[in-house]
Amino acid sequence: MKAVQFSGHGDRDVIEYGEHPDPEIGAHEVLVEIKAGALNHLDLWTRRGLPGLDLTFPHVPGSDGAGVVREVGAHVQRFEPGDRVALLAGVSCGRCEFCRKGEDPLCDRYHIIGEHTSGVHAEYASIPEANLAPVPSHVDWSTAAAAPLVFMTAWRMLINRASVTPGDSVLIHGSTGGVGHAAVQIANHAGATVYATGGLDEKLAVVADLGADVCINYETDSFKDIIYEETKGRGVDIVIDHVGEATWDDSLKCLVKGGELVTCGATTGGMPPTNVNRLFWKQLTIHGSTMSTLGEAERVLELVWQGEFEPVIRAELPMQETAEGHRLLEEREGVGKVVLLAE
Predict the structure, then answer these.
(1) Do 83 and 26 touch, CB atoms closer than 8 A?
(2) Does the N terminus or the C terminus of the chain have fewer Cβ atoms within 10 A?
(3) What proportion of the chain, given as a percentage, has pLDDT over 70?
(4) Boundaries of every domain in the chain
(5) Cβ atoms within 10 Å, residue 272
């Protein structure tokens, strides 16, 4: 089969599209013919190399994808050939203390398809039955491929970790990216007032259409000052921050007493200084969050399939042009997801 792959970490020039061994399926696995994949910043980090990430090369990336079931393993019960499915990339063991509590992302053996193991940016992929969600016939392949990872991540951050409620105020950083634009829609759906940051006014116009009440261009304005003005000095109830060092201190300053910050990443660095006095005096809460449970993922995807939420597609490219898709993400061109279409 043909697959996107790289044989070592590095810049975009390590990405190749060529022949790769066909996948084999186990008793609990499903062979899926991939119709579309989607890129996440996770693909960039996996390609560049992460501390502790030990891959078998050549590595096939891809943590988002959708397609048609072609074959099922002997013990598969949920799917049969011809079914339309989308990938839920977080894999848990189902047996450890955290899995038994229903907290899949805290699993002792938790890993992500496409990051820690072979991904789905290929003609075919072998996927555990538990890590597939049905896709209705009316949903197009680009939507099915682009939605899962970012919407499941944003849903857990807002609904599970922060427990957003109607009337809350939420500041969302990186609102023009994948997780950010999903979080804007979920916070709006929950009845919150949404403050969204981004780098270009034309991008923020898209975010406003998705439900942001106040858009802040961080290139020209201080988001901290805008929040102070808009909330009359009160601050916001929740901050969604996956930026890290560049925003961390001011994000904490933006919180009301008793407020919550939820983080799922640190694209600008993971070691920001923290004013501990502010934390205890204002009784702030910081939540870490990674991916979601399978149940949370299926719940938010039902809302996507129903049209309540929509992944914005910044570009659709043939899978052999994956390097160009990486460029679009690295150079922050456009809003939302880059979709890779199979031949």
Answers:
(1) no
(2) C
(3) 100
(4) 2-147+311-341, 151-288
(5) 17
